[in-house]
Specification:
By secondary structure, the protein is α+β, with helices and mostly antiparallel strands. 23% of the residues lie in helices and 36% in strands.
């Protein structure tokens, strides 16, 4: 695995459920694409009331069930640039069996980077297949 290539795309959360999930690390590429650094903010405060329950549910399932989650996020930069990321969330489990942090990796989906040939070359079809999936290992 090419770890240095992933570092700018990492995000680390410190969940204190159900109220918050503080962002402890927000990768440099993510901050560059978004236009600002979210380190120190509560992830749940970044979503409107219509979407925060979905994000809270995802984080809660990863924490409580020790699941790996894959999801998608639509972002809008202050300049108005809209982009979509594919997100992978991994629970980091302490020696006592409790999830103390979530490690995420966010990669922007583009027509060039996304492997969508098998889906008829349609990014809409790729995004429509599923917005969230959970895996247990």
């Amino acid at each position: 695995m090419d770890v240095p290539r992933h570092l700018p795309h990492l995000i680390m959360l410190e969940p204190d459920l159900p109220a918050k999930a503080d962002i402890r690390i927000f990768g440099t590429e993510l901050a560059h694409r978004l236009g600002y650094d979210l380190t120190g903010q509560n992830l749940f405060d970044l979503y409107d009331s219509d979407r925060v329950h979905v994000v809270n549910e995802l984080v809660t399932l990863v924490v409580e069930e020790h699941l790996v989650a894959v999801g998608y996020t639509d972002w809008t930069s202050p300049a108005g640039h809209v982009f979509t990321t594919e997100n992978v969330w991994l629970p980091l489990i302490s020696e006592h069996g409790k999830v103390t942090r979530l490690l995420g990796s966010f990669w922007e989906l583009t027509a060039i980077d996304a492997d969508i040939v098998s889906l008829g070359d349609s990014l809409d079809k790729a995004e429509g297949l599923s917005h969230r999936k959970f895996y247990r290992f």
